[in-house]
Amino acid sequence: MRAVISALAMMMLALASGAADAQRRGALQLPTSPQRQQPPQQQPPPQQLTAQTILKWINAYREKPEPEKVPEVVKAMSGIGLFKELEQAGVYQGFIAGVIAANPEIAEKLIAEMFPLPPEDQVVIVRAIAYSGLRGWKELLQKFVERMPTKKVLIEHHLYGKGATFDTLDLKASPSHIDIMWGHYFGSGNYKGIDRIITALPWSKDRNNVETLTLGSMAKWTLATNLQSDPRLLAYTKRQLETVPKDAAKELREVITAAETYETGAIRKQAVAAVEELRRKGPEFARNVSWWGQAGQTALAFGCIVASALGQVEVGIPCVIGGALSNVALKYMVPTE
Fold first, then answer.
1. CA pair distance 186, 245, nearest whole angstrom
2. Whole domain around residue 304: which residue ranges?
3. Main-chain phi, psi angles of 106, to 5 degrees
4. Which of 88, 111, 219, 227 is the S-S candidate for 200 at Cβ 3.0 to 4.6 Å?
5. CA separation (Å) from 208 to 43, 281, 284, 334?
């Protein structure tokens, strides 16, 4: 009997020893047999941010709004210099304004997350708040006075002076103001900016003022190209036919027909003719380099119209219609003497 008990004891000790050894291996994650290491998966290279890629994102934004991403996009815009020329940054200012307008509950949080920004780029934030059309925009702007000490004069101009708001922005003053209207629509999905663009359509028939004629052609062309790819906007403009003044309704009907029949080329030809006339007969204002500089990168391909009129299409200027910026160099925009 003692021999049996002794044998059983030895077996129990052996089992316990084996179990403890296995437990130690498991705790240390020691392999029981050699394993082949898997090579780390390579991550795809990040997409390079350019004006084109950012504008494509902006153009698609209203279909799937992601306001939480906007502060980082604003910093990216600043980082690649898109705010450097403010007269050419209208679509960006309008877009930020539209996002603020569409998100009043988190507007303050979104703006706060856009900082830090270089002082020279903070103008865009001031204007975006003022152009948002948000009820209580002045109170919102006052909350960021300390974050933008170098822009105190500009802020006070908007708060207490005659600084423009979304509703008072003069579309005839600069081509960039039409860009702001489009940017606001892209950021908010609201039609306020579209309504203002529609009011500019009759200018395309103005034969007494070349500047007004050019801006009207620009409004007409950008509206036609966007209606062609935006069914929701197309439906809205059709409803507006019964409510807008007769002169605007006539031009709007032409724009809608061109978009639905995919014959926007006719409107493009009208715009090209307007630019050619401006080159040929333009008064002193039209020969002002600074004004042409503002038109030089206007959003939504108006620059492509000018490039075509000047015979520069063959140089490979990138033109993306329907929300993307037209990167036409200023030298192609300045009329010859």
1. 25
2. 200-333
3. -120, 15
4. 219
5. 59, 11, 14, 21
